[in-house]
Write a structure and sequence with these properties.
Layout lengths: L2 H23 L3 H42 L2 H31 L19 H6 L11 H7 L2 H17 L5 H22 L2 H15 L9 H26 L4 H6 L2 H10 L6 H10 L5 H14 L2 H17 L6 H17 L6 H13 L5 H34 L5 H5 L4
The chain binds aspartic acid.
Length: 415
Amino acid sequence: MDFTKKVLISMLAGIVFGTILNLFFLPNLFIESFVINTILVTISSLFLILLKMIVLPLIFVSIISGIVSINDVGTLGRLGVKTLSLYIMTTVIAITVALLASSLVSYDPIDTAVNIALPDTDIASESQRNILLSIFPENFFAALVDGNVIQVLVFAIFIGTAASYVKDQVSEFIKIIENLNKIFNQMVMFIISFTPFAVFALLAKTFALQGIDVLIPLIKYFLTVVIVLLIHFIFTYSLILKLFSNLSIKNFYSKLKELIIFTFSTSSSNASIPYTMKIVENKYGVKKSFASFSIPLGATINMDGTAIMQGCAAFFLASYYGIDLVFMDFLTIIVTATVASIGTAGIPSAGIIMLSLILTQVGIPLEGITLLLGVDRLLDMMRTSINVSGDTCITCIVASSEKLLDLKKYNNSNN
Ligand code: ASP
């Protein structure tokens, strides 16, 4: 059986098993403490820990070797500007569609009994961070210790650029980096072979702990987010593929399956970076030198799905608190949601925390966030898949426009 089928079957099995536990076996001390919190949590956490362990070293060496191989600062600058502009453009489209769709929905008052405590993260300090300055590391080792992807990315771009200026004098350093790159890639392959078990455990755990009943009071909000995510996934990506490239739209979607399952299970763009890079290189034929730059960048700043959730949530909470949004508020939400999604870390639940930035701007009480937490876990899985699909789409478009994409691989529907 091929890998995709195995992962798909584990995903379905995980959802079914988790739902059965939730409906028929909980509350039960043995199931909760042994089956869920010991077996499922250990398998799923181990997988995420291993992925996180490899992300920073992988980004660090693959960016440096990528930049050294591009060997031209002008090309690098052009690639950066194109990629960033498209990332931002798709996010603005995403949030605009989210607001338009939300304005068509009439929300009824909901039962405040769904109030849930906020996670520990310090909302105020998250939302007040200066996003531009925070991408530069004051201390590279601190960035490594904190697991700060964007700061490691910036530092690696800096080293790579400097190294390509003195390439002839540092050939041994470059050789070491290239060898490390090979080793880290092999480590990624080992970790990924563990995916079917991890996907089963991740989904079983989530569906066991998260009953479907939390959906009911928030069903309209939930469905609005899901529908906008689907609209963006189906229409926006097809449209920009058509407008900005000659790439086959059908092949783009048909190769996304595994990646969607993977990101759905991890709910983390960051933890998915090693896997996304593999898929983008092996299935879509994007050159490693570009994929290793564009995918970590996208995983950190391009969050279309997150922006959609944030737009719908702001609209929903405004109706809930009886706040009338005027045209200026819509613009404020579009700008702030774009900035907030850029500043959102690619980790589970980060998007709901950053929602506070938008709510503050339009005067919606922050406590509103607690209303949404019950359904946020499920929405997080879906929006993370959209976030990463967006990264993949833009990476393919820019790569094809710069001849950094192997069309044979892209068009081969068997790989
Ligand atoms: N989990 C999302 C991601 O990693 C971020 C979010 O919470 O929206 O892409």
